[in-house]
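Friendly challenge for the regulars: who can give me the structure tokens for this chain first? No prize, just bragging rights.
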Amino acid sequence: MRPPGGSGCPFGDGPQHEPSSTATDSHLTRLDPRVGPRLAALPCELVWATTWGEEANTDMAPRLGLPPLPVVTWPETSDAQEREDKWFGLHWKTRTLVSWADGRPFVWVDDEITDADRDWVSTHHPAPALLHHIASSRGLTDEDFAALGQRLRAT
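First reply, four minutes later:
Bragging rights claimed.
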């Protein structure tokens, strides 16, 4: 089984596209269609891990040339979990992504990952995991794809 991976941050300073009448978010105008084929070429199962939910499949996937992908569903967190996450400095996605991976190796690409998330995952997830931070202002770069490809092939 190939490890699941987050879809990453496909935004950057790539070609600009006019949003459709149904999708006017400024992020959509920053989608770089060159990112989609590169994501699809990674040796993993791609998963949307975004607040866009299913809209990622209707609004972003076609612009990137990606097929519909599985979407992580974000559950309501308890007050105790929120307090604990705040205490540890965890991103609100961290617990859910570890649960989604269900003991399998995974890669999470995001612009909000911190060392606190890496530490928590290394303690609470039995399989290899790569939490790869990117700058939202530049999106995924050649260096990011090289690092992701190398790590995924080694898993």
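The longest strand covers residues 106-110. Confidence is low (pLDDT under 50) at residues 1-24. Your move, everyone else.
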